[in-house]
Amino acid sequence: MVAMTQAPATTKAARRRHDREIITLAVPAFGALVSEPLFLMVDTAVVGHLGTAQLAGLGVASALLVTAVSVFVFLAYATTAAVARQVGAGDLRAAIRQGMDGIWLALLLGVLVIAVVLPTAPSLVALFGSSDTAAPYATTYLRISALGIPAMLVVLAATGVLRGLQDTKTPLYVAVVGFFANGALNVGLVYGADLGIAGSAWGTVIAQCGMAVAYLWVVIRGAHKHGASLRPDAAGIRASAQAGAPLLIRTLSLRAILMIATAVAARLGDENIAAHQIILSLWSLLAFALDAIAIAGQAIIGRYLGAGDAQGAREACRRMVQWGIATGVVLGLLVIATRPLFIPLFTGDPAVQEAALPALIVVALAQPISGIVFVLDGVLMGAGDGPYLARAMMLTLAVFVPAALLVPALGGDLTALWAAMTLMMATRMLTLWLRSRSGRWIVTGATR
């Protein structure tokens, strides 16, 4: 009888403990993550009132820019997992040292990306099939924004360090200040200085550089406190690159999916690519909101595994999936309720509004699926299970490509394209669920 009465109490206690950990990390992470798509949404709102051609140009350029940065999101994800494992093992000096290796790698990659993007910007825009009216705006925005890529990558790596240290509040503070600075700079440079779409790009570059400086100050202060070296270490940088390689493959596959979706939308006409840009901004906002739980998962799972607590990792995973489903349902209902009010904020063109409204219903219905996907993605990243994530995303890409290409071939519209996006998310959910059920992701110790 004693055992029977204590088991539920123990389960409830564990659930409450995991809830506290998730809330403590996820709520600040939510604010910081939401600020990222809000940067783009501010640009979209400001540029959208310049005209449909400018908004269409921003849609193509931002897709390319986000791809150029997001393929290196492993700088945050891999660093979070590695640092969290060291925290779980009780070695803060080693944790910060690994973080510094990631930051140095970010700087090197940022310089390489600038060297590629600047001379090839017109060709990259042309690959998207952008119209003659939108292409010049896309090229201008892309070239200027590319100058801020090193700062953006440093922000990713430094954010990963702080998340691994179980600190999601500092990224929130930096993100909030950066968001308001970006908004003020965009309005001032686009309208006050009359720089048009170029002003929007410069405003974002300046804001991102300021954020990078703030992050570096925090990480360097922590390195001094714990006696961690700030000097670049070739072996450490190389190890960081090797650890992130599978996540790079995973992210390249995901970015290919989003780029193909944007390319298909561009071929449907300026009104459809403009509507797609608005929906993609909202989709990114919803995705980052769900990813807040995943970020908590990366930090928590990494810490449990670093401390050798496999059971705690399993329980945390189960609880976070429940959070992901519930959050997805709530977000879907909010999208359905607010969609007539949302789209007019970004465009007054009736044709763009007509294309976007039905596609938003598809996005809303897919949110519970997205909740599961983002949570399990974060759990497996926290466990350092990058090779499986790479294979699963390549399979997802193989499923999505023919579905997306059939949309214009069969005379489909933007709603059909977002139905193909939902198929992509359902494929991801299946592959991640199978892996989580297998338990093969659970490997304990300070390093995987």
From TrEMBL:
TM helices/strands, residue ranges: 22-40, 60-83, 104-129, 141-165, 172-193, 199-220, 247-266, 278-302, 323-343, 355-376, 388-410, 416-434
Annotated InterPro entries: DinF-like, MATE_fam, MdtK-like
A single cellular component GO annotation: plasma membrane
Keywords: Cell membrane, Membrane, Transmembrane, Transmembrane helix, Transport
Any one Gene Ontology molecular-function term assigned to this protein's record: antiporter activity
Membrane-related topology note: Multi-pass membrane protein
Protein name: MATE family efflux transporter
